[in-house]
Amino acid sequence: RPVVQGHVLVSPRRVVPRFGSLKADEVQDLWALARVVGAAVEAEHNAPGLTFTIQDGVAAGQSVPHVHIHILPRLEGDFVRNDDVYDAVRRESFLSRTRWLRVLNSTSLF
Fold it and tell me: CA-CA distance, 66 to 30, in Å (whole number)?
């Protein structure tokens, strides 16, 4: 679920669990795409700023085992404290991970 309206994820084609597992050209492509998508999100939502964030590993709040960049359009005053956005992303990632685990536990994989 999006943290704010316009919240999008950008991920590489190759599925890798951690940022450090990406090849140099994949890192370059991922951030180049994030820049293009960010500009489109910013324009679409008339946002004066963007937050780009990666949660790298479960301990960092990563909810799915695939590297992705969160891109959030930001508006003045959208959070009481500006850094509260990170708590919102972490909270949503925890809820996503919980839903993901429920699906895995209720689905027979064999």
Answer: 13
